[in-house]
Automatic annotation (TrEMBL):
<feature type="region of interest" description="Disordered">
    <location>
        <begin position="1"/>
        <end position="24"/>
    </location>
</feature>
<protein>
    <submittedName>
        <fullName>Uncharacterized protein</fullName>
    </submittedName>
</protein>
<dbReference type="InterPro" id="IPR029021">
    <property type="entry name" value="Prot-tyrosine_phosphatase-like"/>
</dbReference>
<dbReference type="InterPro" id="IPR026893">
    <property type="entry name" value="Tyr/Ser_Pase_IphP-type"/>
</dbReference>
<dbReference type="Pfam" id="PF13350">
    <property type="entry name" value="Y_phosphatase3"/>
</dbReference>
């Protein structure tokens, strides 16, 4: 997807929740949506820094979210499949 080209955003849902054309989206709204959904390294680094500052570890974060050891093992298995 080329940034700033609204035609490349055709799979996004419209403002009323239907999927399809982005003709109801203003360019600034569509660009803001794309920017929000990007997984830029600096965004991910910031999120990880905050998670570690607040919880101390990824395991503690998931424990606070109610994920037990078995769930964490399953999560690892799914995410590390290659």
């Amino acid at each position: 997807m080329r940034r700033g080209n609204i035609r490349d955003l055709g799979g996004l849902a419209t403002a009323d929740g239907r999927r399809g054309s982005t003709s109801r989206w203003s360019t600034s709204t569509a660009e803001a949506a794309v920017e929000y959904l990007l997984a830029r390294p600096e965004y991910l680094d910031g999120a990880l820094d905050r998670l570690l500052a607040e919880h101390g570890s990824i395991e503690a974060y998931w424990a606070a979210a109610g994920v037990g050891p078995e769930g964490l093992d399953r999560l690892r298995d799914v995410l590390l499949q290659g």
